[in-house]
Amino acid sequence: TTTTTTTTTTTTIAPISVREIEPSLHGSSTAINPSGNAVVAHVAVHLVGGASSDFQSVRLFTCNSAACETPSLKEFAPYRSCGPPDIALHASGNPTILFYVSNFHVTDTADSNHYLHLIYCSDALCSASSDTTVVALESSIDAYSLAMRSNGLPVFVYYSTVGGTKLVTCFDVSCSSSSISDLPHWVYAMTMDLTLTSENIPVIALGTFDSSWLAVCNDEACTAPTAVYFGEKLTYFVPNSINIAMTGGDAPVVAFAAVDSSSGTPHSTLILIVCNDLACASPLKRVVRDTLVYDTALTLSNDIPVIAFGLGKLSELGPKSLRVIKCADVTCSTWSDQEADNDPPSSYPDYVYPSIATDNGYIAVAYSYGSNMRLATTNL
User: Are 97 and 129 spatial neighbours (Cβ–Cβ below 8 Å)?
Assistant: First the structure.
């Protein structure tokens, strides 16, 4: 692996607009629909009888414009506890959402199992939907990620300490039937992100406290994946701590915050891994930001990496600003860096939990700001 450090340019991104959406817990997933507007799934506290409760629910907001002045809101069934959602859109724009559930439904608080649920929306605003239990385990589900195949059917991967890592290929939009592939023991992670090639071949980015690597599958069922090790230790394990995207030429690009103890004081750096082909035999490792980087989110705009991340301050806990980086080219030889939001309230969480999506130069970043969900938008 070739390691280089990037030089910051003075070029700035277009002005970034920030809009507060609604109260939220931490973790979101963002997509851009065929209308060119942001669609965001997140988890919020559910209100029972108009009062705050211990229950949670996945919520979906669909923007009606680039600035998202009056989004359409949809709340799904409440559960005792919900994990962060992962969203993918059908070509028609209908959302599909994968999320974690424990202690099942409000009416069944004694259930101690762990589940993955998949919601399929029948239209872009999710006026009607199905909610399918796609995984049910007695052990915890530690990581999961969703993608959409070119035929409009979902595929997802998940890791459990008891059952290992499995790839689930759905046979219908609601995933009422599916095939399950058991992946090798080395395909495990505390955080993972799934993407697909143009031929629907899965590629999985994986991260632990010890290392980071890719599992490059050989077919749609991933019968014989190949490992590509980066060697970097991840710093954080919040949702989407490692991010992967695929160029138009089916070359993976990966971003994450990594541990750097070279200065004697451990801190985190923003690492970008750029593969030159699917096999990723000789990837370029780029140190894009070398201090106090928290959680990250990655997307590609015409194969150009765009990264959102939380940035901290010395002697202060937690990120103190949300920043957006746009690379000048696919290898990020130079880049522009712009602050999107800062001065968080005292209740600001340890992470900003960003998620990012792009289409035709339009960028949308959903993130946590205190106890609220915000959306930052711009055009590149």
Answer: no
Contacts of 11 (CB under 8 A, 6+ apart): 328, 336
Residue among 71, 4, 62 at smallest CA distance from 33: 62
Residues 346, 350, 265: CA angle, nearest 5 degrees? 115
Angstrom distance (rounded) from CA 321 to CA 54? 29
Q: How confident is the model at residue 250 (pLDDT cuts 50, 70, 90)?
A: very high
CA 163 – CA 180 distance, rounded (Å): 12
Widest CA span in the chain: 58
Contact (CB, 8 A) for 301 and 18: no
Residue (of 333, 286, 283, 274) closest to 1 by Cα position: 283
Assess contact for 367 and 322: CB atoms under 8 A: yes
Quick check: 293 and 309 in contact, CB under 8 A? Answer: yes
Dihedral (C-alpha) 243, 247, 248, 251: value to the nearest 10 degrees?
-110
> Is the CA virtual torsion 319, 15, 36, 129 positive or negative?
positive
d(CA 43, CA 371): 11
Identify the three-state secondary structure at position 99. strand
pTM of the model: 0.91
End-to-end CA distance of the chain: 30
User: For the CA atoms of 81, 23, 89, 177, what is the dihedral angle to 10 degrees?
Assistant: 20
Euclidean distance between CA atoms 230 and 39, whole angstroms = 32
Read off the pLDDT of residues 269-328 as tens digits, 9 standing for 90 and up: 899 999 999 999 999 999 998 878 878 999 999 999 999 988 876 556 556 788 899 999
In which residue are the tokens 């507007």 written? Answer: 37
pLDDT of residue 248: 95
Q: CA 271 to CA 257: how far, in whole Å?
A: 6
Closest CA to 334 of 12, 1, 106, 41: 12
Q: Which residues partner with 39 through β-bridges?
A: 31, 62
Q: Which of 199, 164, 167, 200 is nearest to 185 (CA)?
A: 164
What strands, in cross-sheet order, belong to the sheet with 178-182?
A: 141-148, 154-160, 164-170, 178-182
Interval 30-37 mean pLDDT: 95
